[in-house]
TrEMBL record:
One of its GO terms (molecular function) is transmembrane transporter activity. Pfam families: SSF (PF00474). This is Cation acetate symporter. Signal peptide: none annotated. It is a multi-pass membrane protein. Keywords: Membrane, Transmembrane, Transmembrane helix, Transport. The chain crosses the membrane at residues 6-26, 47-69, 75-96, 117-135, 147-169, 181-201, 242-264, 276-296, 359-388, 409-428, 434-459, 471-494, 500-518. GO terms for cellular component: plasma membrane. It comes from Alkalicoccus saliphilus. It is found in: Membrane. Belongs to the sodium:solute symporter (SSF) (TC 2.A.21) family.
């Protein structure tokens, strides 16, 4: 093992030890610890944990690479993921927290008083979270594979072991505080390289103020090489796909079960709103940095790598060629590397940039540790969501309502281990790049849940028949379009990553039409729906609003 790999490995092992230590210290002892951290997380720390949960391998590893390769068209990921948090924070999170349940399937089952709706929601949650976690494990494979000069598939299995240990030990309580630590590590690891890059290129350590000049220079380089301009709109795609992807990511963000459950870990509706506000701040630190990362990385490659003799390439290329994520050709046979001869897998851009810019062993190792933190933080939240959907919503609420606390905890931990192994096996040969796989999860979440959750809170006339029809129809349409698009069939040029626009439309129409064609829900359920819209000190009862502290109008 070379010196660089050793430094990176030490940093990653130290962070692994930290995560497992936090999980052991905050070990879940009762089911409320395991599922919602006993609803005792302060808003500031919960916002940071949401940031850690949200900063997945797709955000850390894949997003800057996507923007670097796609240019303007890649911005749909940044705008969609950020905009979705506004929908969630203002339209759903506080109301769902007031309802006081543990999971999204439990909310749907109790809101519509329907066990079939609960079962469908639980199965859909498992499908969505399983799809998402494949992307996270693929990300861990990229990092560990590069670190140890191993195939990415071997790195995936190492990630599986670490994730299964700390998520099964700590439950939501342990995962929450682990995610706080992971956010601190990953945001430091993400920002440090672009600060150094900004200093190298412009002499200014504030990349957010300098990368605009770099974009202008990239445009000139693109024109000189005769390739599509970096920030020219819709050069790598079309307007319909851009808008469909933007919409899919927004509604998917607002409906992702593992994100929603983070708002259940605070004490009140007000705390849920503040958690969302803090989360937006912490998320913005990375999302405002991603375009700068993409611009600087592309600039360094185009000015310092492209044009080099192929038999005398920089040293950083060799280990990445070994992973299979970087390919070099000599299409015109002149022995000089052209931009068209360089095939960069978008998932290696962030990982390779410190090496490309020769930022030193510690920075390279720090980025590796940050990338692992990003993959592990989201994976932990996803595993808790899969676990709770099975152990709480299916095993406890439907199969064995008299199960003891210890049996429910055991079922939850077994579900974590089995789902991690299954996802790891799929991630050995992932069906797409990280950002693509994650986009599928968002499409499935939006197509299955967003109309049901949104109308379940804001339309009291919605009933169980509409909820069931909407979820089944939305999930089916979204899955069908993803498979059709992968097979070469598309409508309006919309690709598989924008499938949510069709799923949400089908879901919304089915919810409204079926609800209006069937009897309205009981008055009790209608009152519960209206009650969600009022602050916690108020209760809607018998057609009137009452103050909880005085029980008077």
């Amino acid at each position: 093992m070379d010196q660089q790999s050793l430094v990176s490995l030490i940093l990653i092992l130290l962070t692994f030890a930290l995560y497992i230590g936090i999980s052991v210290y905050n070990r879940a002892k009762v089911t409320s610890d395991f599922y919602v951290a006993s609803r005792g997380i302060p808003p500031f720390w919960n916002g940071m944990a949401i940031g850690g949960d949200w900063m997945s391998a797709a955000s850390f590893i894949g997003m800057a690479g996507t923007v670097m390769i796609l240019g303007y068209d890649g911005l749909a990921y940044i705008m969609g993921w950020t905009g979705g948090y506004l929908l969630l924070t203002f339209l759903l999170a506080p109301q769902l927290r007031k309802y006081g349940r543990f999971t999204v399937p439990e909310f749907i089952g109790d809101r519509f008083d329907s066990n079939p709706a609960r079962l469908i929601a639980a199965i859909a949650t498992i499908i969505i979270s399983f799809t998402y976690i494949i992307g996270q494990l693929s990300g861990s494979g990229v990092v560990i594979g590069r670190l140890l000069n191993l195939p990415a598939s071997t790195g995936v299995m190492i990630g599986v072991v670490v994730i299964a240990i700390y998520a099964s030990l700590g439950g939501m309580k342990g995962v929450t505080w682990t995610q706080v630590a992971q956010y601190m590590i990953l945001i430091t690891a993400y920002i440090v390289p672009i600060v150094f890059l900004s200093l190298q290129i412009s002499g200014n350590p504030l990349p957010w103020l300098t990368y605009g000049n770099v974009v202008n220079e990239l445009g000139a380089l693109d024109r000189e090489l005769g390739i599509s301009e970096y920030f020219a709109p819709f050069e790598e795609g079309n307007r319909a796909q851009f808008l469909a992807l933007l919409f899919t990511l927004m509604v998917g963000t607002a409906a992702l079960p593992h994100v929603i459950v983070r708002f259940y870990t605070v004490t009140t509706m007000k705390a849920a709103r503040w958690s969302g506000a803090w989360a937006l701040l912490f998320i913005a630190l990375l999302y405002l940095s991603a375009p700068a990362y993409a611009a600087f990385s592309r600039f360094v490659i185009m000015t310092q790598v492209v044009g080099s003799p192929i038999d005398d390439l920089p040293a950083w290329t060799e280990p990445w060629l070994n992973t299979g994520l970087l390919e070099i050709a000599d299409s015109d046979g002149d022995g000089v590397l052209a931009w068209e001869d360089l095939v960069i897998h978008q998932d290696i851009v962030v990982m390779a940039t410190p090496e490309i810019a020769n930022l030193g062993m510690f920075v390279v190792g720090l980025v590796a540790a940050g990338a692992m933190a990003a993959a592990l933080s989201t994976a932990g939240g996803l595993l808790i969501t899969i676990s709770s959907s099975f152990a709480h919503d299916i095993y406890y609420r439907l199969m064995k309502p008299d199960a003891t606390d210890s049996n429910r905890l055991l079922a939850g931990r077994v579900a974590i281990v089995l789902s991690t192994i299954a996802a790891g096996l799929v991630a050995l040969d992932p069906p797409g790049v990280i950002t693509q796989i994650i986009a599928w999860a968002f499409a499935l979440a939006g197509g299955t849940f967003f109309p049901v959750l949104f109308l379940g809170v804001w339309w009291k006339r919605m009933n169980r028949q509409g909820a069931i029809a909407g979820m089944l129809g939305g999930l089916t349409v979204t899955l069908t379009y993803i498979f059709l698009s992968m097979g070469g069939v598309s409508f309006f040029g919309i690709q598989d990553t924008g499938a949510g626009v069709f799923g949400v439309t089908a879901n919304l129409l089915l919810v409204i039409i079926v609800s209006l064609m069937t009897p309205p829900p009981e008055q009790r359920l209608q009152d519960e729906a209206v009650d969600l819209r009022y602050p916690e000190q108020m209760t809607y009862k018998d057609g009137e609003v009452w103050m909880n502290d005085e029980q008077a109008k």
